[in-house]
Design brief:
The protein has 14 helices and 18 strands. It is an alpha/beta fold and 393 residues long. The strands form four sheets. A nine-stranded mixed β-sheet has the order 12-11-10-13-15-17-18-16-14, sandwiched between helices. The protein has a five-stranded parallel β-sheet with strand order 3-2-1-6-7, with helices on both faces. The N and C termini lie close together (7 Å).
Length: 393
Amino acid sequence: MVAELARLLSQAPPVIVGLVVNPVAGLGGPAALKGSDGPDVQARALALGAVPRAGERAAAALAALHRLRPDVRVRTVAGAMGEDSARAAGVPHEVVHRPRAGAGAATTAGGAVTVTTGAADTRAAVAALGGADLLLFAGGDGTARDVLDARPRGPVLGVPAGVKVYSGCFAVSPFAAAATAAAFDGTTLDAEVVDLDEEAYRSGRVGARLYGTLRVPAARTRLSGRKSGSSGAPPGSAESIAREVVASMVPGETYALGPGATTLAVGRVLGLDLTPLGVDVVRDGVLLAPDVTERTLHTLAMSQVTHGVLSVIGGQGFVIGRGNQQFSPRVLDRLAGIVVLATQQKLAALGGRPLLVDSGDAATDAAFGGHTRVVTGYRESVMYRIQSANEEL
């Protein structure tokens, strides 16, 4: 499919793509911080062992874009805000903006990472890249807000790299962003930019606010879409699913419960007060470890039989890779299996679209291809298609 798409696109005129990377996007996910906004949070994440990944995801998008459109012209920002990703992807590029001295994330010889980038750096970079046909930005909802505040002159597209990726302006994966950019013909639609108050989010209060809209390529099948809630589910649905999960738990084995209203219901059935938007580990009805980091979860999974219990994000269909980055590739590799939870209404709202996995590792994601059992109620389940968010490429 890639070869055929590349052949067709080779006949199109060259496209100029701008790239802005928020190099600290996503740091807070594996560190169980529910976001990465603010230098204090970023410093805490780094101290807890988090590693910047936004640059890698931007590089993956650029490499795929270059395979599809060898004639693509990339304009970007110096250093970690774009140039490093273009170099890693082996893509010819032009640096058209240099951020303030020291902005970005840099790894020292000793392995330590310093973080000095901020919202103002993103806004300045967007303004400098205003002449591109399409602006790619790598980050999460906070980065999308910064792009919106910069009032971009042309269309944009998000490469998902943050903890929170609930806005509708993101592609479903770096490779979907590449395919969308390669096929872009100038046709656009408006996509919403939403974000959560991270302090309230860390306390378990979810309140998404609409900040505005951005013009994005009209490629709905490759856009993640705005996250939708579960308010339309009939009363008792989550509790019914939770009773089935608890009834199926194997004595002596460990269960890592991901974020979401449905997994919170599992805690209620167990009589436990779980972390509203964290990952909690339980065994035999006892809270073994609350609000764990990726590092802690991996240690637990290495030492005992552990199952992941994950709910589906409404409207998007993601099971892994959105708000639950504690379930990293190395953690997923050690799990005895995952239990997927969703109401029938949430599955129906997907309109036949598959469930998605975006762990950041292609081999890990590919292992989920096929169908998975989804618990939809007490003694009720369905087999539903699941695939890597990158599968079409």
